[in-house]
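Appendix B. Extra example for self-study. Work through it before the problem class; the solution is given directly after the inputs so you can check yourself.
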Amino acid sequence: QLQLQESGPGLVKPSETLSLTCTVSGGSISSSSYYWGWIRQPPGKGLEWIGSIYYSGSTYYNPSLKSRVTISVDTSKNQFSLKLSSVTAADTAVYYCARHNLVFGWYFDLWGRGTLVTVSS
Amino acid sequence: QSALTQPASVSGSPGQSITISCTGTSSDVGSYNLVSWYQQHPGKAPKLMIYEVSKRPSGVSNRFSGSKSGNTASLTISGLQAEDEADYYCCSYAGSSTFGGVFGGGTKLTVL
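Solution. Structure tokens for the complete assembly:
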């Protein structure tokens, strides 16, 4: 059964770069049918799509975050990663990784449990 | 890309039916049959309930159904159960220029 697990620092200082990794287990990240995405949720607020990546490295980003976001993939480790630069308190959120059906539709059908990242000095 | 509009809260009694609306624009909901719905219990990850407007993933109860008319999509839950109490989010594809999507602000469902 495919599972996703986020990992990374829970505390990041303002102006620094937030870095998270999502490890996919129980299946291959190199599936031709899926992208792999990042979504975030500030405390008490709604969901926001950050961006998604294909195993080949092809990426799509939310235009509102594009200038600060880099998503990469490491197929040898079955992982994909998120980097968000120049963070502020507004980037404090639970960050989820998810399997993104973008080839035949546009939805997230499997999610990780999420990890809270707090931006504070 | 602006967030889709959902009511902040809806409520219903066990056994009743409720509908949650999700209003977008002709650039997202109105142009594509790519609306999905997610259920989120407190402290948990979202769960896909409906995709491509009205399709249910395997394992999701047939009490959940989706539809769309113009720029507004809807999620209907029939035969309300206590376990349905959760936050619900809609999401729509928003165009090929960025292959991006937009979420709604979320609706809190209370089962009375």
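Self-check: The mean pLDDT of chain B is 94. If your reasoning did not lead you there, revisit section 3.
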